[in-house]
Amino acid sequence: MIAGRAVRVRFAPSPTGSLHIGGAKTALFNWLFAHGEARRQGLTGTFILRVEDTDRNRLVPGAEEGLRDALRWLGLIWDEGPDVGGPAEPYRQSERTETYLAAAEDLIAGGHAYRCYCTRDRLERVRTEQQARGEAPGYDRHCRALPPEERAAQEAAGLPSVVRFATPRDGETVVRDMIRGPITYQNVNLEDLVLLKSDGYPTYHLANVVDDHEMDISHIMRGDEWIPTAPVHTLLYAALGWEMPAIAHLPLILAPGGGKLSKRHGSTAVEEFRTQGYLPEALLNYLALLGWSFDASTELFPPERLLESFTLARVSPSPATFDYAKLRWFNQQYINHVISVDDLAGRVLPFLSGAGLVPDGPADASHPAFGQVRELSALLKDRLETLADAPEHMRFFLVDELDPYDPALLVPKKVEPLDALAALEAAGTALAGADLADEAGTEVKMRALADELGLKAGQLFMAIRVATTGRTQSPGLFATLRAIGPERVGERMARAVDALRRHGDEVVGADD
RNA sequence: GCCCCUAUAGUCUAGCGGCCCAGGACGUCACCCUUUCAAGGUGAAGAUCGCGGGUUCGAAUCCCGCUGGGGGUACCA
Q: What ipTM was estimated for this complex?
């Protein structure tokens, strides 16, 4: 499948913002190809991070750092890159400008490129005229055939210029995409793309070709949106006399309503998913299955399993719609069934401290509240879809005093407020004398009490649940009571009795 | 407009000529379990395999056209 040589792939984002979920997917597939598929075949598989910062206008300070943080959080660790270095340094394009310049000069010398002195105004004018005439917009190659003396005059005038690729005017170019097979282009339809901008920085077209060659990239795996420029890149390799890496265009992620995924639909940045309590494993798993499948039924692929299973051959060519609901399901699967309770507790801690429910501290077993949070994690893991759900679910265990009760909730359906009051008083007394650590024993006692009071067990349990948690939903009542602890259970039962005594009359007739 | 990619249920997908009047998953609905909420279990609804032509004894699977969706058309990547 893979040619028998070292596999070197790269993820090449530009530092113009945070890591987009689509970029994360591209990075993931590159990483899986190098660290998974290639290495499984006994080849060296190298995953390279290259920063494409050639657009000086769109540069965002700190973006590169953010990109790296996001990749690291996902566990997509690169072997070579701007921070770790490597045999092909530097890995930041802004630090490689001489290389591009040299390549551009080579191309000009070989007749494959030319300097273009057209102003933006002229380009603009040409475009509008073309459109008015119903022609395809594009550069009219005005400077391609400039007479030598005119060219010399432009040079002498010291006007700013760009370098354009002299695209062959006839013939056809075939791009052999590993996922979709050959794609044939008529060269007439191809443009004389700008290679070097007037500020001296290269465009993507030049930089990516030069760098992929210099960095000995074996396989280009990039987003689908690059397909239209692939023939020009192919021609560039030929003009430079270089062998082109194998190439694959990965399917794009679409928004639920169609089109590009944007803020309007929900989160799009990896960082947002992180703060919303998604696990990197779940995000990776979901992303992997957006365009790749292993067989007809396997869904759960933790990172190690992805590395064992991924093959480029099973990547689909068609774009896929992002489904937030399914991502949530994956996240829940990991929280509920995949990661350990200790692991979960560690991951939940930052969210709890963020909500002020536990002190700040290390997100591991050395945190002073770890023991308690671990216990709560075991109790609640089946109920968490995201880590960010934890504060809400764990709040009543961690806080000293509950918010004021809604007295109506303390009165079970079809029970008179006065009877409910009596029941709560009796339950409070019984619980005070019970060993809450003995969940089964407590349950036996409470069931007996319900009988005595002429209530269904569920009715009594709900009243106690509301009294001790302030909510109508909780884990199993007796595990909950145990986790709350005898002291707080006692206080809360007393407060509930008090609340019902003071407001009970307001509840009369309100429950049916 | 032009160039290109793509097309199985609302969504992600399996399928690479007969095993498919199409399998799995999310979502939806019902039931079971049950002290609530979850989790779990069982089941149901949901696809004339976008449409129309071919090829073939036989097509979701191969070919052509159309249509829908998407991308590109910058001195942005």
A: 0.96
